C-alpha cells in the first residue's frame, strides 16, 4: 500500500509568514500544468544543490520538475547569500592567485573542528570538487576576482560574478532554456508517497490546493532546520531567542522531518551548525552575508562582563571565522563585542550598519553598555602582554601575546590608536549539520540498514555526512555542488537504467 508520509509540526519560525502570497504556479481554474504529468526526477528545493541536481539530471535526458517553496523573488535558499566556492584547482589564473591541491584541501578540512564526519564521503567531496569550476561554467556560472577585504581567500576560493544571487539567476536562466525542465514556485512538499522503500510521488501544496505529482526519483535538497527555532530549542534551550538566522526563513526542516518519519537514518550532530559572528543589529532572518563581521582577527573580543574569552588570532580567518558563532552562543546572554582601533580599520570589509569612531576606550565601553573600568583593565592586560613582532595581515605572523589567558597567537597589536571602534555581535546561524545519512551515490539510507530505492539527498540536508563541528569558507557551496551533481546524476540513472 502506498503511504503518504507527512511532516511533523516543529513550530513556526515567524511572526509574519513571508510565504503568504499566492503561488504563480497554480492556476485559478484547476491543477497547475506541472501536476498533470509524470516526471522522471522531482527536485525538492531551489538553492545551489537543488538546481545543480536538476541540471545534472537534465544532462542525462530526463524530465525534471523543481519544486521551490519560496516565491520567485526569494528563490535559492541560502545560496542567495554566498559569494564564493572552495575547490581543488591546479594553477594560478585571473581568478585565483595560486594552485590549491587535493591534499591541501583535505588537510584544511581535517584541521577544522573535529575533522570530517565520514572520511569516505568527505574525500569524495574533495576529489570531485576539482571538476566543479568547469562544470559550473558550462551551466552558466561566471567568475570575478576576489573582493578587497575578503581575508585570505584569493588562492583557495573562486568568487561568483555578482555574488550568489547572480549565480542563481544564471542557473535559472540556463534551466529556462531546457525544454524538459520546469520550475514551480511557492510549491511546498507536504508528503512523500511511499511503497516501502520506493517513492512513487509527492503531495505538493500550491496556491489553495494540494496536488499529487508522480515521478521516478526524488532529490531532496531543501536545506536544514536552522530557521525552526522550536527545533533548535530542543538542543540549545532558550538561548535560541538570542540567535540570528542569517539565511532563508524557509529552511525550517519540514522535508527533513518527513524523511526521519519515513525511517531515514540521521547523520551529523544534533547541536551542530555553521554559525558565525553576526552584527547584533541584523534582522532575525535573512540578513545574509552582508551582516557578517570580519573584524575579529585584528582586535579583541569581549563578553558582556568585559573579558576576553578566546584567541582572536588562532589561525587564518577562513579556517576560524565559523567557530565564533558557537563561541558567542556559549557566552552570557549570547552576546559579545568586537573592539579595534584606527591601525587596522581598513583591513576588512566595514560593518554593514556602520560604526561610530570614539576618541577613548572609556567612551567606547560606555557606548556598548560595558563596564568601563573592567574594559580598561582587560585592554591594559592585553596591551602589556604584546610581544615584539612584524605585523603581516595576509598571513600567520609572529605578533602574539605572552603570559595572557586566553592568548592571542597572531596579529596581536596594542589597542592604543584612536579613534576606537566597537560593535555588538550575536551568533549568526547559517545552517544545521544534522541531516540524513547518504551513501556514496547520494541515496538516503534507512535506519537498521539499507536505503530508499529512489530517494536522494544533497546540500545542507546531508552536510552532516561531511562536516562534524568545523567549517571552511566556501565549503558549503562545494558540498552543494558535488552532491547536487551526484544526486541528480544517480536519480536520473535510476530512471533510465
What does this molecule look like?
This protein is an alpha/beta fold and 497 residues long. The chain folds into two domains: 3-234 and 248-271 and 434-496, FAD/NAD(P)-binding domain; 274-428, Flavocytochrome C3, Chain A, domain 1 (Alpha-Beta Complex). Helices cover 24% and strands 21% of the residues. The chain contains twelve helices and 19 strands. Strands 1, 2, 3, 7, 8, 9, 10, 18 and 19 form a nine-stranded mixed β-sheet that branches. Strands 11, 13, 14, 15 and 16 form a five-stranded mixed β-sheet that branches. A three-stranded antiparallel β-sheet has the order 4-6-5. Strand 18 and strand 19 form a beta hairpin. Helix 1 packs parallel to helix 5 (164-176), helix 1 runs parallel beside helix 12 (475-496) and helix 10 crosses helix 11. The longest helix is centred in the last third of the chain and has 22 residues, at 475-496.
CATH topology label of the largest domain: FAD/NAD(P)-binding domain
The rounded distance between the terminal residues' Cα atoms is: 25 Å
Unreliable spans are 6-28
Query: Using DSSP, what is the number of strands?
Result: 19
Structural class: alpha/beta
CATH architecture title of the largest domain: 3-Layer(bba) Sandwich
Please state the average pLDDT score.
92
Q: Can you identify the CATH superfamily of the largest domain? A: FAD/NAD(P)-binding domain
Helix content: 10-25%
Overall 3D geometry?
A: elongated
Strand coverage percent: 15-25%
Total individual domains: 2
Q: What's the CATH C level of the largest domain?
A: Alpha Beta
Number of helices: 12
**Main sheet characteristics:** 9 strands, mixed
Please compute the radius of gyration using only Cα atoms: 23 Å
Amino acid at each position: 500500500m502506498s503511504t503518504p508520509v507527512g511532516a511533523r509540526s516543529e513550530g513556526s519560525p515567524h511572526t509574519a509568514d513571508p510565504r503568504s502570497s499566492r503561488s504563480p504556479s497554480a492556476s485559478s481554474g484547476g491543477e497547475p500544468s506541472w501536476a498533470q504529468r509524470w516526471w522522471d526526477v522531482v527536485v525538492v528545493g531551489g538553492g545551489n544543490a537543488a538546481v545543480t541536481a536538476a541540471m545534472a539530471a537534465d544532462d542525462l535526458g530526463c524530465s525534471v520538475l523543481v519544486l521551490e517553496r519560496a516565491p520567485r523573488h526569494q528563490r535559492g535558499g541560502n545560496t542567495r547569500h554566498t559569494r564564493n566556492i572552495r575547490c581543488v584547482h591546479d594553477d594560478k589564473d585571473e581568478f585565483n592567485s595560486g594552485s590549491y591541491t587535493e591534499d591541501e584541501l583535505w588537510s584544511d578540512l581535517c584541521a577544522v573542528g573535529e575533522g570530517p564526519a565520514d572520511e569516505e564521503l568527505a574525500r569524495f567531496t574533495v576529489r570531485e570538487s576539482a571538476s566543479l569550476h568547469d562544470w559550473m561554467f558550462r551551466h552558466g556560472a561566471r567568475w570575478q576576482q576576489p573582493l578587497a577585504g575578503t581575508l585570505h581567500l584569493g588562492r583557495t576560493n573562486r568568487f561568483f560574478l555578482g555574488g550568489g544571487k547572480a549565480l542563481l539567476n544564471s542557473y535559472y536562466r540556463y534551466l529556462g532554456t531546457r525544454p524538459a525542465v520546469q520550475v514551480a514556485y511557492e510549491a511546498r512538499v507536504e508528503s512523500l508517497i511511499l511503497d516501502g522503500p520506493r517513492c512513487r510521488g509527492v503531495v505538493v501544496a500550491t496556491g489553495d490546493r494540494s496536488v499529487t505529482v508522480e515521478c521516478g526519483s526524488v532529490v531532496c535538497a531543501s536545506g536544514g532546520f536552522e530557521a525552526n527555532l522550536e527545533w533548535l530549542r530542543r538542543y540549545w534551550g532558550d538561548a535560541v531567542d538570542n540567535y540570528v538566522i542569517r539565511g532563508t526563513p524557509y529552511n525550517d526542516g519540514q522535508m527533513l522531518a518527513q524523511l526521519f518519519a519515513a525511517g531515514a537514518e540521521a547523520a551529523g550532530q544534533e547541536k551542530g551548525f555553521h554559525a558565525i559572528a553576526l552584527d547584533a543589529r541584523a534582522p532575525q532572518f535573512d540578513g545574509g552575508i552582508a551582516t557578517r563581521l570580519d573584524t575579529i582577527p585584528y582586535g579583541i573580543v569581549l563578553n558582556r562582563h568585559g573579558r576576553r574569552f578566546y584567541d582572536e588570532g588562532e589561525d587564518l580567518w577562513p579556517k576560524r571565522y565559523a567557530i565564533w558563532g558557537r563561541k558567542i552562543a556559549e557566552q552570557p546572554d549570547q552576546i559579545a563585542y568586537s573592539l579595534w582601533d584606527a591601525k587596522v580599520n581598513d583591513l576588512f570589509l566595514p560593518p554593514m550598519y556602520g560604526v561610530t569612531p570614539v576618541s577613548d576606550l572609556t567612551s567606547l565601553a560606555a557606548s556598548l553598555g560595558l563596564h568601563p573600568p573592567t574594559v580598561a583593565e582587560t585592554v591594559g592586560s592585553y596591551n602589556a602582554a604584546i610581544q615584539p613582532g612584524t605585523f603581516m595581515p595576509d598571513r600567520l605572523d609572529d605578533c602574539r601575546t605572552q603570559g595572557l589567558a586566553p592568548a592571542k597567537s597572531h596579529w596581536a597589536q596594542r589597542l592604543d590608536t584612536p579613534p576606537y571602534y566597537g560593535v555588538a555581535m550575536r551568533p549568526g546561524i547559517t545552517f544545521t549539520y544534522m541531516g540524513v545519512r547518504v551513501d556514496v551515490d547520494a541515496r538516503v539510507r534507512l535506519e537498521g540498514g539499507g536505503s530508499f530505492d529512489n530517494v536522494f539527498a544533497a546540500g545542507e540536508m546531508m552536510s552532516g555526512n561531511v562536516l562534524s563541528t568545523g567549517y571552511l569558507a566556501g565549503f558549503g557551496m562545494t558540498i552543494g555542488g558535488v552532491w547536487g551533481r551526484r544526486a541528480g546524476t544517480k536519480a536520473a540513472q535510476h530512471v533510465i537504467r
